[in-house]
Design goal:
The complex is a heterodimer of chains A (about 350) and B (about 130).
Chain A: H1 7-12, E1 16-20, E2 23-28, H2 32-41, E3 44-47, E4 52-57, H3 61-68, E5 81-87, E6 93-103, E7 106-111, H4 116-130, E8 133-136, E9 141-147, H5 151-155, E10 171-176, E11 179-185, E12 194-200, H6 201-215, E13 221-222, H7 225-235, H8 268-277, E14 281-288, E15 299-301, E16 307-317, E17 322-330, E18 339-344, E19 347-354
Parallel strand pairs in A: 3-13
Antiparallel strand pairs in A: 1-2, 3-9, 4-7, 4-8, 5-6, 6-7, 9-12, 10-11, 11-12, 14-17, 14-19, 15-16, 15-18, 16-17, 18-19
Chain B: E1 8-9, E2 14-19, E3 22-27, H1 29-35, E4 38-42, E5 49-50, E6 55-61, E7 65-69, E8 74-79, H2 82-85, H3 89-92, E9 101-105, H4 117-123
Antiparallel strand pairs in B: 1-2, 2-3, 3-9, 4-6, 5-8, 6-7, 8-9
The chains are: A alpha+beta (about 350), B alpha+beta (about 130).
Chain lengths: ~350, ~130
């Protein structure tokens, strides 16, 4: 089991620790609902240093990235980031990721912790053709997500740049909490605004401590992985391994907006055909009409009780106080407003297909 | 960890308070703290007679679902309906307002097999 540079800090705060993607990670501190509320209304800090970081450099860096990712990285200028995915050769997804353009010929790819080795092997395979310089920085870099509507105000005293001026999915390389050259990125997995801060492992404790000092008057609190999941699910953000995997296509998953056929990429021909001809099943978002909580792997059934799909993510939404979820169903059941049913133990609970996000600030 | 001496316990982390032939049942302080924020308590066995160890309901935390097991054979005569709107009472007051059901017990001899506070304390290593 690996630790992040902050594991002892979390333990000292009384966090409940769980193994996640090979790391010993904080799942909650004071309780998931309170932590969820902190991020929705104030500001909270997540240690997500388990995430993987690959630095891709050289004159063919862009060509390699264009080949392996679905979004169009040629649109990125220095200081911009984009959400993207790595399609596999057989119609599914190797991983989802964020691509940052750090310099003219240098990109940072941020991938899921559980997929670091798989992604590295996959990208390396295609790099045989491009010969870009690839460095896996995952073990050396830490990542803090400082999220919530008060993040800008609470953190402004820690840096000389204007945090409020960084637009969504833009970033700056600047000083922060006395550390030089950290990436301050206006991204996150919560839908409540804020930043993600990339720094070296030996720098992260200072940043964590200063962030809590600066945020004290704003009610800043540490947030665990359990609230990270309820926050992302209220926005309908996909979680790799649940909502997308090696067998789900980006078109089925509602990720057409990051699948750009303006360029050639892995399996792009088949995906383009899918996009034009339409898909047979789609990832839907639903809210339960009655009490109950949908869970990963519960069956979705029709009014006759026939299985039509499966729940990929589900929870009791802390903000809405109702059961919400994502799942795949045949296209004919996927229209907004349709009624489907989630089999929860002995009962089929009616649910309505809704538009994302479930919750907006 | 709060383990009241006057209550009986099961290895499934439930507590039992006996009043004549009626047993009030809930989950222990240890159980609620392990589960985290409880968001749903479902009991659909009201008025049913169940054997010991049968599932009488379900308690759901944000991340987990756990079955509730009948600690003693008998009829479920009451469900704490206030938990439908305020399941968080199980977290805040597990031995008081967070009680779950009352059972009219049918096999009094089973009571002797319940754990004492001491034995439960040992079970959870408290």
């Amino acid at each position: 089991m690996k630790n992040t540079a902050l594991t002892k800090t979390h333990e000292a705060l009384g966090a409940k620790m769980v193994p996640f993607a090979g790391y010993n990670m904080p799942v909650s501190y004071e309780g998931v609902n309170a932590e969820h509320e902190t991020v929705r209304h104030n500001v909270g800090v997540f240690d997500v240093s388990h995430m993987g970081e690959f630095l891709i450099s050289g004159q063919n860096a862009l060509s390699l990235i264009q080949k392996v990712t679905s979004n169009d990285a040629s649109k990125l200028t220095v200081g911009k980031a984009q959400y993207s995915c790595l399609p596999n050769e057989t119609g599914g997804i190797v991983d989802d990721l964020i691509v940052y353009r750090i310099k003219e010929e240098q990109y940072l790819l941020v991938v899921n912790a559980s997929n670091i080795e798989k992604d590295w092997a996959h990208i390396s395979k295609y790099n045989a053709e491009f010969n870009a310089e690839m460095r896996n920085l995952s073990e050396n870099y830490s990542l803090l997500a400082i999220q919530g509507p008060k993040a800008v105000e609470a953190m402004q005293s820690l840096t000389s740049i204007d945090l409020g001026a960084i637009k969504f999915y833009n970033f700056e390389v600047a000083d922060f909490a006395g550390i030089h050259h950290v990436i301050i990125s206006a991204t996150g997995y919560t839908g409540s605004g804020g930043f993600e801060i990339y720094c070296k492992n030996e720098e992260v404790k200072q940043i964590w401590d200063k962030a809590f000092e600066a945020g004290a008057d704003f009610g800043i609190k540490p947030i665990g992985l359990a609230a990270r999941d309820t926050l992302r699910l209220e926005m309908g953000y996909c979680l790799y391994g649940n909502d997308i995997n090696e067998n789900s296509s980006p078109i089925e998953a509602g990720l057409s907006w990051i699948t750009k056929f303006t360029k050639d990429f892995v399996n792009s021909e088949a995906l383009e055909k899918q996009k034009i001809q339409g898909v047979e099943r789609k990832l839907i978002a639903f809210e339960l009409n009655e009490r109950g909580i949908p869970r990963h792997d519960y069956e979705i059934v029709d009014s006759q009780g026939n299985k039509i799909g499966v729940v990929t993510s589900g929870t009791m939404s802390p903000s809405l106080n109702k059961g919400i979820g994502l799942g795949y169903v045949p296209k004919i059941f996927s229209n907004i407003g349709n009624t489907i049913y989630v089999q929860i133990r002995k009962k089929a609970i009616p649910a309505t297909v809704v538009k994302l996000p479930f919750y907006s600030n | 960890m709060n383990i009241p001496a006057e209550l009986k316990y099961t290895k499934d982390h439930e507590w039992i308070k006996l009043d004549g032939d009626v047993a009030t049942v809930g989950i222990t302080d240890f159980a609620q703290s392990e589960l985290g924020d409880i968001v749903y308590v479902e009991v659909e066995t009201l008025d049913e007679t169940l054997n010991r160890e049968e599932v009488f309901g379900t308690v759901e935390a944000v991340k987990t679902v756990s079955d509730l097991f009948q600690p003693l054979s008998g009829e479920i005569v009451e469900f704490n309906e206030s938990l439908e709107d305020e399941p968080e009472k199980v977290n805040s007051d597990p031995y008081g307002e967070g009680w779950m059901v009352k059972i009219k017990i049918s096999t009094p001899s089973e009571v002797e097999e319940l754990l004492s506070a001491e034995a439960y304390k040992e079970l959870i290593g408290a």
